[in-house]
Amino acid sequence: MSALVVSGVTASYGAGPVLRGVDLTVTEGVTAVLGSSGCGKTTLLRVVAGFLAPDSGTVSIAGREVAGAGRAVPPRRRNIGYVPQEGALFPHLTVAANIGFGLPRAERRHSVRIDEMLELVELPRDLADRFPHQLSGGQQQRVALARALAARPALVLLDEPFSSLDAGLREETGRAVARALRASKAAGVLVTHDQGEALSLADQVAVMAEGRFLQIAAPADVYLSPADEAVAAFLGHAVMLTGTLGPDQVAQCPLGAVRARGELPAGPVVLAVRAEQVRVSADTTLGTTATVLDVSFFGHDATIRVRLDTGEVLTARTPAGAIPLTGDRVGVLVDGDVVAFPGHAR
C-alpha cells in the first residue's frame, strides 16, 4: 500500500493556478519535492496536509482517500505528521511534553514512548526536561520530528525544516532526520529548494517547476539521466551548449569535440555541461581557450567562471591546488561524456 498517492491535483489562489495536474506516488522512504521558490511545492504540501482544498484531483494517504470529489478529511484525521520550517515547538512545554502532545493521555503519562522517540531522533534522555529555548536549532528540529512521529503516522510532511540552520548543522540534522524516518517505517515528503539536500537525503526526487513535475526518479537517475533540458539546467546548474552530433556519438560544439551520453541520431543536439566536468588548465594549447572571469574559493575546492573566446560562459569546479587568477588566459577541457538532448535545426 502506498503511503501517499496524489492524482491529477490542481490548486489555485484566486485566479492564479499554482498546481497544474500533479501526480505523485510515495511508497516508502523519503521523497524530496525539489524546486525553486514559487514553483508550487509548499502548496502541494498544504493540499496533502489538508490545509488547502484542491480544485480538482484526489489525495489518498495509506490507501484512504482524504481529498477529492467533495471529500475533505480534516488534517487531524489524516494520520500524518507535520514538521514546519521553524519546528513550531510549544515554548511553554518541556521537550517531553512537546513530544507527547499528540498522544493519548494514558500514553502521555508514561515516558516509554517519549524515551523511544528521543532515541529515534538521536537525542539524549536528559534533554526531556528542557524547554525549547534551551536547545540548539538542530535539536529543536529533531524534537519537532519526534513529536510528528510519536503518534505513529503513515506519512510525515517536512516543509523546508533545515532552512534556518547553518551549513554544518543542516547536514548533520538532515541525516539524523532521514535515519529516524526510515527507522520508524513512516514515509516522508521533504519540500526543499536545496539540491544537495534533496539528492543526499531522499530515496526519490520529484523535480517541480511552474506547478508541474518535470521528473520523478531516484536521485542518481535524476542527476545523471535528466528527463529534459529544464531538469538538466536546474540540477547541477548545467550550462546548455548547442552542437552537432556525428554518427560516432561525438558532438562538435564551442568546447570542441565531446562525447555524448546515450544513443541519439546524428544531427543538432543540446549538450548539458556540468561544472564538475569542466577542467581548466594553465596550458592554453589544451582544449578551448578562454578568459577567467572570476574565482570563488571554498577551501576544499574552487568555482571558476570562464568565458570562451566564442562568447559562451561556463563554470568549472576544481580542486584548490592550482587556481588561476581573474583575467588569466586558460585552456578549457571536458572530462567524460556529456548528457545530450535532440536539438533543433536552424
From TrEMBL:
One of its GO terms (molecular function) is ATP hydrolysis activity. One of its GO terms (cellular component) is ATP-binding cassette (ABC) transporter complex. Its EC number is 7.6.2.9. Residues 4-235 form the ABC transporter domain. The keyword Membrane applies. It holds the Pfam family TOBE_2. Keywords: ATP-binding, Cell inner membrane, Cell membrane, Membrane, Nucleotide-binding, Translocase, Transport. It is an enzyme of class 7 (translocase). It comes from the Bacteria. The keyword S-adenosyl-L-methionine does not apply. InterPro entries: AAA+_ATPase, ABC_SmlMolc_Importer, ABC_transporter-like_ATP-bd, ABC_transporter-like_CS, Mo/tungstate-bd_C_term_dom, P-loop_NTPase, Transp-assoc_OB_typ2. This is ABC-type quaternary amine transporter.
